Amino acid sequence: MSRLALLIVSLLFFFSAIVASGAATTVTIGEYFSETDVTAPIMINDVEELAAATIKVSYDPAAVVVTAIDNGVSGSFIQNSQYAHDGWVKMAWYLVDGSLNGDVTFALLAISPSGSYGDYSDLEIEVETLSDTEYQTIDADIINGFVYRGMNGDVNADRVIDAADSQYIANSIAGILGYPSKFGPSEVSGDGTVDAYDCVYLARHATGVPGYEHLK
Questions:
Q1: Sequence ranges of the domains in the chain
Q2: I want to staple 110 with a disulfide (CB 3.0 to 4.6 A). Which of 68, 125, 132, 190 is the partner?
Q3: What is the DSSP string of the chain?
Q4: What is the CATH number of domain 151-216?
Q5: Residues 48, 52: Cα–Cα separation, whole Å
Q6: pLDDT for residue 11 is more than 60
Q7: Sign of the Cα pseudo-torsion (192, 195, 200, 202, in order)
Q8: β-bridge mates for residue 25, sequence order
Q9: How far is residue 7's CA from residue 104's CA, in Å, rounded to a whole number?
Q10: Separation between Cα atoms, residue 16 and residue 14, nearest integer Å
Q11: In degrees to the nearest 10, what's the CA dihedral of 81, 83, 87, 91?
């Protein structure tokens, strides 16, 4: 094997090792469409040797409020819901001995609506601590969630999914006053962004075009 070929092979192995050692751990809370209470688990997925965590969740108290917090794992669990009506709660947890691996249900949040039908709130996660048995930080990607008091696609909150919802999304994208952005019920195509395609997708769904039966 030539020196050039050997160098290329070595570089491939080097970069493969970097990719393989990248952080795969995620912290999630979920996405919810509901007119009533929901239970939102905070998940720490694909984790190794988890020994301690402190996580804060923020939301819009005009739309929803956390009414109860339960620990999802064994160990010492402290929860602060003193400021729940101000829009945030915080939880801390640790193990005196041992660690957890795999998919861990960190906590269960009971979330109740505090506003009206059509209200929307992001569920924003802030990881303050995530560490292993050696007190080393565990890198993790955060995936925030939301709660929408209504049906997916019913952006204008009239309890009907029709062309008016498609028009609402278009007006919101254009920045027209009176049409605030609602990512949850507006992102119906499943591509992770709210754009003109969501207007088209929702209009086709409302008119029964084949292939658009399901909102993502």
A1: 26-148, 151-216
A2: 68
A3: --HHHHHHHHHHHHHHHHHHTS---EEE--EEE-SS-EEEEEEEEEEEEEEEEEEEEE--TTTEEEEEEEE-SSSEEEEE-TTGGGTEEEEEEE-SS--EEEEEEEEEEEEEE-S-TT-EEEEEEEEEEEEETTSPBPP-EEE-EEEESS-TT-TT-SS--SHHHHHHHHHHHTT-TT----HHHH--SSSSS-SHHHHHHHHHHHTT-TT--S--
A4: 1.10.1330.10
A5: 12
A6: no
A7: positive
A8: none
A9: 41
A10: 5
A11: -40
Residue 6 pLDDT more than 70?
no
Q: Does domain 26-148 have CATH number 2.60.40.680?
A: yes
* Res 105: pLDDT: 97
Say yes or no to pLDDT of 5 above 50.
no
Q: Which pLDDT score, from 0 to 100, does residue 9 have?
A: 41
User: Which tens digit of pLDDT belongs to each residue from 143-198?
Assistant: 999 999 998 999 988 989 999 999 999 999 999 999 988 888 999 999 989 999 99
Contact 8, 14 (CB under 8 A): no
pLDDT tens figures, 34-81? 989 999 999 999 999 999 999 999 999 999 999 999 999 889 999 999
